[in-house]
Amino acid sequence: MWIDDILGASSTIKGKVLAKSQLGVSYEIKDLGEARFILGMCIDRDPQSRDITISQKAYSQRMLEWFNLKDCSPVSTPLPAGLTLSIDDCPVTPEEIEEMKRKPYREALGSLMWLQVATRPDLSYTVNLLSHFAHNPGQAH
User: Fold this and answer.
1) Fewest beta carbons less than 10 Å away: which of 48, 96, 125, 140?
2) Interior CA angle at 116 toward 110 and 118, to 5°?
3) What is this structure's pTM?
């Protein structure tokens, strides 16, 4: 059996040593030291406070570039207050449908889902709402 990468955490040195020794019984392991980056997430540690921060800033920036949104302005909330989206916002004419087919709506949703799951739970409501329109998104969506 081949396992590529494992990331572990322990609140004590004893727990860390025990986990590594138990894994070492069944698998050949190689300790690469403290993790700095995994699955698109940057792991930062503050040695003074011992705080650990996980961010996806680089992933977010690549995502904005990929979807041609790198010049957009940040906002304080994922959706404007009072915004109502409905099926009435879906395209109906062949021209509108064809125009929206050229937009990577589902790909953008998938990228937002990864942010939501990993480090941005505040995006959950918005991603869920926008997912309702993935079959036929309109400009408002």
Assistant:
1) 48
2) 105
3) 0.73
Enumerate the H helices of the chain as residue ranges. 13-26, 57-66, 94-101, 105-118, 124-131
Closest CA to 112 of 84, 82, 71, 141: 141
CA dist 41 and 51 (Å) reads: 16
27-44 pLDDT, tens digit each? 888 888 888 988 889 999
Within 8 A by CB and 6+ apart from 35, the residues are 7, 43
Tell me, rounded to whole angstroms, the distance of Cα 16 from its chain centroid.
28
Distance CA 94, CA 40 (A): 38
For the chain, what are the domain ranges? Answer: 1-32, 68-131
Greatest CA separation found in the chain? 65
CA distance 44 to 82: 36
Contacts of 106 by beta carbon, 8 Å cutoff, 6+ apart = 134
